[in-house]
């Protein structure tokens, strides 16, 4: 359809150019950039803010929209998923059934002196780790920072040697920290004298705190509701409608992108632990007997980095690199659907610019799984906060559909027409109501109910002995063949009815966005103050900067023309016609991650050519409008690399811009 | 860049073909379609639902995403607006300042017998209108349905003649219904014996009910919060950051797309009055001295339909059709910025498929304006529920920025460097503290404060009389030149500091979506059961249907190839390879609003050509893959009409598909 300009086309994004080696990551400088350029601001900043609530300014908002757009293309469109949009406000009854009202909670400890509140597991972890560090220091061993310090606030470390036995106890507790009950944590706090790490004041026993925000619906306040903690429940409740929409074909997936809410006890990890966040969730419904994925073969040779639960339970963090085909074959990954999605998650993250070497798949240990999951792999991204869970890929089995179905008495099942009807035999009881009623009178109903509840084994036994006995409310009833007879009948089923299992890839868009920013950030070796965000063109907030060389009036209509032209071909652009010199203007837009820049200069006025600059290499080409437009479409569409462009057009060195 | 296939290109969407005259709109049939094809379902349907909460299934979810995408292109990208994403959860303090805690409320009446709750204004309206209808019937006049019955539940009408005076009182009350206080409504209810319209039981006096959902933030419950009732506040609070991001240039606009929440008292109008809804809001900041828009000239000749407040206050609903240039000149529309946005709103709505003749701009009357607005125009769309407010375009003046600034002591202003410094003279008081203190002792501070608060007029008078007198707490103080002297000084200002005014176009996406569905719905004259949704291609949920003529295996790879090819060029598509006949499959997809369909038949196997069918006309063309792809891109991009396509390729009549 479109003329092909280049010999090679790369389907996925490739780093545009070999970047200079990056200096050490400077978190403070990045934070300053993110605030200064209004990527992000504390929510309600002029009202002194509220912990765990953040606003996205224009660059992060566009970045988020582009990530979501890619997500939709990569998952929903590519796999024909059924995207829906269900409400945030959820009546309590739904979340009671799903188990969230009872179990979606953390344990917290209050310092009665200061009123400060700690999340119990984080507190124990923090204090014991500080003591272990102090021990190491006292023993003269080298102390290095654990990368996994996401959840902890640093407490002061006192060099103090521990008993070897105590040291080993601490280590065991830390390995199992995600698996303790509230009561157990309370005992640990007493046993190991765990106190407020800053003031050393004693704390109250752990109390459970449900993480859902509650509200009430309607004017009478009679309907209690919550803000959803995940988008999944809205999908499960619509299962029957979704299946019908899919012409009753299995397997299939629904998807939803939307805000979810968790009332974190004391959020402290910046953008990584927030109370309101955008999720993108897929619920893929499979036949529990196979859990196989038709497209697994397409991805089976993709290599991933695994951290299986066995490794962790042995107290290790060594990565196993395997193809997904091997991992499924070895039983590390349970089935091909789970395997397929792990690869698709990997491909998505790398496509939007995540550094592949900073991505691993960690399996949940038995004791840390959410109440609804029977297996779970997290895509974790390495950041300055440690390895962060950014995507969860859980096998929720038939849990949710089963509990909602039971509660509402509505079938949430698949009916499959069997090619070969299934023939089987089973016992059936035939009750003689005419004699049962008069004999048992007021107990007749209870007796009948008990008979109807008999298992196959009970009926078989009764048919052999000729009678059946049972107790109801302490009274024994014995019934012979006068009241009930048992016969073996042959049944034929031409429809198989089953509750599908659910594989759920669940994306925390905000965490991915923040990790991506960290992975994309570097500063020019010649000037550490000049930060660059090397977002891939497909997700960069703005694709192209337009800079007139100076304030000369002849540039004004040309800039206007270019802005409209680029907009028409779908290239988002921004004009920077401020009076700063051109190098300064480019530097400012490197901070926003704008991958390309067009300079309009005096030669443009003469021959309509412009220069196009690439952000990471700062190299330029010069070409006509028609060529530059095509190049930009191909670059932002991921169809060509900057090297290929430079090879074709030659590097332009007429101006010095940096 | 792309080869131009056609002579004429239409920039905006045009109806693709002359449709047959539509039969009478059948609401019940449409509702059935919307449920059956899972456009929409009551939220938590299997739990018996919650009033005012709805889920969007795949077609409505895609429709919504496409409307939002067009909105972003039409407003944010076209006008370089700064889109941001702020949190839904909002601390109470912010909404106290904005006036929502005190004033964002409706009045409700409870029926103590049934527990049923009525919105007071809707109740009065409903009962009085029913009585007026009864009067008309009794007088033998023809009774026709008011189109404005959005908010009312039908009550039974008893034919009963009213006194002429009473009738006129009722009519006056109805005209002013949006302007009564709770107390006044309570008096009306007593005076006119307004009762539960179904049971005729008496009601309790109106009570105020705040429409915001509340919650609490953090584990202590100390921070009270609300779910935002509008996205605007998050934009205002970030004003200073936004202005800086815009290089301190004025005017500019911020924008936000996101969910808002209103705890409606008793929502009963389907998708038009819901408790959770998607909004898209623009806050355009202007200099209060001009409120002019630089691009107004581009739109000044566009004609719009106006219903100004003067017309309504005279009890009329006649439409005034004027160009926006005339409307501004005549003072009907206050300023060119407001005028510019009315046109842009009109253009957006028509572009996505709203019927222009069912769109009017109604100005708010003084008594119905929101507490923050000084002028407001609603874009109203005509639906089976009457004329519905779908977009508000309010002049919020400096209200919000002023109140937040006062509350937080943070300046939310623009500083403009004046080319010509402003020179002016003013009176200044010089206080002799050395004598003031000893003389007035404990009152000295109060006296000094009073002096500092003197106006220019007071100072001028004092300078003439030589002394100044005032009362503080009942005591009179007189000060002569020994204590204070007044002189006239010359000041020079090179910076003008002002609080910008805000023009706010605010879109209810769900209401637009529903109205659009009504405007797009019709059924084939030959079969009233065959519904069609004629969405314009740019916003249709799925652009192209792929149908193999039969289940013949040779079609399978071709269908797969086409699905991938269309996906690659960004044309969302859906395969229908069910066993239904091809006409039935097209009919099913007409219900989803899919504008185009490709049929793969035996000729395709031979020569790779396919047929392309257009939904509204059901006509077809036949062409090669490369041509069909280009045609689809041009059609879905709004670059060409179906008539032009048929003209170029000729109508294909080889198969009978319908």
TrEMBL record, chains A, B:
- Localization (cell): Cytoplasm
Stored Pfam families: HGTP_anticodon, tRNA-synt_2b
Stretches the record annotates as Disordered: 135-154
| InterPro entries in the record | aa-tRNA-synt_IIb, aa-tRNA-synth_II, aa-tRNA-synth_II/BPL/LPL, Anticodon-bd, Anticodon-bd_dom_sf, Gly-tRNA_synthase/POLG2, GlyRS-like_core, tRNA-synt_gly
Give the molecular function GO annotations: ATP binding; glycine-tRNA ligase activity; transferase activity
A Gene Ontology BP annotation from the UniProt entry: mitochondrial glycyl-tRNA aminoacylation
Q: How does it assemble?
A: Homodimer.
Record-given protein name: glycine--tRNA ligase
User: What organism does the record attribute this protein to?
Assistant: Neolecta irregularis (strain DAH-3)
